[in-house]
Amino acid sequence: MATRRFPAEWEPQEGILLCFPHNGNDWPGKYEAVQWAFVEFIKKIAEEEKVFLVVANTTLKHRIEEKLGIASVNIKNVSYILQKTNRSWMRDSGPIIVKKGNQREALNFNFNGWAKYGNWRLDKQVPARVAAHLKLSTDTVIYKGKKVVLEGGALEVNGKGTLITSEECLLHPTIQVRNAGFSKEDYEALFKEYLGVTNTIWLGNGIMGDDTHGHIDDLCRFVNEDTVVTVVEKDKQDKNHAPLQENLKRLKKARLEDGRPLKIIELPMPKKLVFDGIRLPASYANFLILNNTVLVPTFNDIADRTALTILAGCFPRRKVIGINCIDFIWGFGTLHCLSQQIPV
Questions:
Q1: Does the annotation mark 337 as catalytic?
Q2: pLDDT, the chain, mean
Q3: pTM greater than 0.90 (yes/no)
Q4: How many CB atoms within 10 Å of residue 2?
Q5: Given Cys at both, which of 90, 133, 154, 284 links 340, Cβ 3.0 to 4.6 Å?
Q6: pLDDT tens, position by position, 118-155
Q7: Architecture of domain 4-343
């Protein structure tokens, strides 16, 4: 029987799964701006690969088509999937597409609103609907007879057998508990079964303001098979300083699936970003890798240029483009959180 493998994000993609924002409650006071920011996001992706765009209904689809026309988007690369959702965070509610031999399979990780929000039952339908559109089989992730709850934002892989995740997200005993009673050994066993992962690296805590309670895609990302970028906070007074230093220490001790040490590149954090009295989880690690481009969130910050330069060095064969995410981040996530890659 063929084993599964979760391809790395930089491997060839058929396209990117997105869901057009329709829940203004995720961006109170900024919903109109977010829609146009999202049109620009679609435009950048559609320049080079397909966008599989989940939309709530035909009325919204017609409104979106009008906006895409105004913005001169390559609409030939936009394919619509009609499906009502609660939110637009496809990294977490969308399916994770793995390879099984020569076939692709859509994994349903039983999204439940990050074990925090009550309105997620429409989002729960997304994996099956997307899989049907892509003509893929779906497998619901079950371990020891229980449905497993995991989000794509909690999982970072190099495609060769190593996965990075965080203890805060998956192992906290009382806050946003996805799978009560699960141990590291349980997670590592299901990572092996469903994702082909033989080596798991556990970081500690996530960044301040993270609504998901520790997603890895705001912390640490593979940029190739043996190299990660990890965010660090230089300001010792900032609450992110200590946990991010602890994560850096763990990465320095960590080993890849073949026993080699990781190559580690430090990525800065933008200055503390507050809107309406709320600290927001702004991070340059929330970038999205496309076939020929890397889209990087920027925040009108002096560190934007530094982060773009570092990432340009990490991806010498891809264009590295900054996308202003000041509006997106009011919903507690940016480019990577909103998207899910579809491997070829």
A1: yes
A2: 97
A3: yes
A4: 10
A5: 90
A6: 999 999 999 999 999 999 999 999 999 999 999 999 99
A7: 5-stranded Propeller (3.75)
